[in-house]
Amino acid sequence: MDKQIKLFLDFLENDKKLVNNTLQSYKRDILQYQEYVEENGINYLKVNSNTIKTYFDHLGELGKKKSTISRNLASIRSFYQFLVRTKKIKKDPTSEIQSPKPEKKVPNILTAKEVELLLEQPKSVDLKGIRDKAMLEFAYATGMRVTEIISLDLNDINFKDNFVTCKSGHKKRSIPLGNLSMKALNEYVKSSRPYLIKDENTKALFVNINGKRLTRQGFWKIVKYYKEQARITKDITPHVLRHSFATHLLQNGADLKSIQTMLGHSDISSTQVYMQFQNETLKDIYKKAHPRA
């Protein structure tokens, strides 16, 4: 192995204390880069930004994902920054190269019928069923993140005016609650939660069977269980309910700014990903009717 590359990897292992998997990732990226420049008769100590850009174009031609190219850039940038610090080179050739923008993934969503099927699964025949019904209805009604839902206290719900106050860091937002969600929530608070909690001073809104605040893992398991009960083949996580909430609101005429507020997105570009699901019916009509469609 090249001396400078070995010194860099030793630095990552002994000084940075990187775990083995991360260390191997750096090693793989750097050696692959070294192989490329050597095959093209280039000394990696004398490259410029154009050489680096050409290498990333090469990775793109090989079909590498943008996320993989970004990781490669991070590895190579760290290597050259190390070479600058150890005075092997004067300037980092990656300093002016920007990481490729990540591809926005299409969110996984449920149809309205699939949501209805999922929400029908919990039966209000015992304490757990009443709680699960309230939780699933609440998750779909608000579009809140799992962490936000499990962090809620009972006094965050305004039962008179039907809304929840969500606190995320230093920010607060109010989200309205529909009739079905409020009905399930009222039943849970009156008929289930008082028997689940072990201490009357417990503040958590949603608790587990031991009376403690529900965890992320607990919430995920509940969603997975009812997904299997409903025999829905799609992969459903609590976040899928959030995506479905936003998409269904948009499809039914809600404006993007209002959805952004309810989701708690700081940048509306995060909300705009749901635009691709809007007006699917209009697209179908256009394709069938327009002579040049």
Structure overview:
By secondary structure, the protein is mainly alpha-helical. It has two domains: 3-85, Orthogonal Bundle (DNA polymerase, domain 1); 112-281, hpI Integrase, Chain A (Orthogonal Bundle), CATH 1.10.443.10. Helix content is 55%, strand content 5%. The chain contains 14 helices and three strands. The chain has helices at residues 3-14, 20-39, 49-61, 66-85, 112-119, 127-142, 146-150, 179-191, 193-196, 216-229, 238-251, 256-263, 268-271, 280-289; strands at 157-158, 163-168, 171-176. A three-stranded antiparallel beta sheet has the order 1-2-3, with no helix packed on it. Strand 2 (163-168) and strand 3 (171-176) form a beta hairpin. Helix 1 (3-14) packs antiparallel against helix 2 and helix 2 (20-39) packs across helix 4 (66-85). The protein starts with a helix and ends with a helix.
